[in-house]
Amino acid sequence: MDYVRPKKRNILDPLDPDFLKRKPTSLSQPPQTPPQQGDLASTSIFDEGEKRIKPTPTQPDRSRPSARDPTVLAAALDPDPEARRRWQRRKIIQEIRNRGQLTKAQIIARTERESLCKSQFYETSVKKLMPLARQIAGKPIEEAIIQMRFSKKRVAKDVKKHLEYARDEAIVKRGMGLGMVRPEADTAAEETDNATEETGEQNQQWPGMVVEDKKGKRRYVSDKTSIYVDEAWVGRGPYGTDYDIRAYGRVNLLRPPETSKFSQVYQNDAYRMELMDFKALR
């Protein structure tokens, strides 16, 4: 008779009935603290009675504004002092070299207002958008909007919306196109009900002037504050990605121009008059 070796029990076998008996006892755990009952916050609106936290001497009072530290503000106002000094030195040298005389552009920029507006990217090419830029350059803003209204170009509708937005932005942010301003003495002496009629009379008193744009066309201006498109140009946008599927599983990668950006510079008609005065002095 052959000897049969008894099967060794695995003490880690969970099917063994003595598995739980041989399991070592766990270490003694620290006593758990009972959970604390929650309560409303001291600043809650549901609490009975008003509980206000008075500022203690150690707690800073946030109601009063603290004094500003100039060393902290210098990080944003003057991040590069050495570059600022070089720029100031360069400007002083320019003033000494020109003997304190301002250029034509500087004199006009001190008295007249200018507004630069850039549109979002349009889904068209530069070649299709450039004729519209040439069409509105040098025209009053209202006439440019009318030109885009009756244009047959598909992108003219988007350009028209952008011109209306640029006109409103120039009026609100730059104060352009607000009409002729009367003297303060006349304004304070008369009533506000007749303000509109008096403004029209004041505009009629100014005889107007014939100005010449960059294209050589002459226009009659009855209001110095009226807005016109001084410059208009087009910029190319980022290139897109497209695929041209060919035969035998071949694919060509295309990079079509995705969009174009439309930018304009707006001026008052008084800017044209200043330019004509400089030309007359020559």
Describe the structure in your own words.
There is one protein chain. The chain starts with 69 loop residues before the first helix and ends with a helix. The mean pLDDT is 77. It is 36% helix and 14% strand. It has 9 helices and 7 strands.
End-to-end separation in angstroms reads 135 Å
Helix and strand content put the structural class at alpha+beta
Q: What percentage of residues falls in helices of 4 or more residues? A: 25-40%
| Low-confidence runs of at least 5 consecutive residues | none
Helical element count?
9
Question: What topology emerges from the helices and strands here?
Answer:
Elements: H1 70-77, H2 81-97, H3 104-111, E1 114-118, H4 126-136, H5 141-149, H6 156-173, H7 184-189, H8 195-205, E2 209-212, E3 218-221, E4 227-236, E5 242-245, E6 251-254, E7 260-268, H9 269-281
Antiparallel strand pairs: 1-7, 2-3, 4-7, 5-6
Helix pairs in contact: 5-6
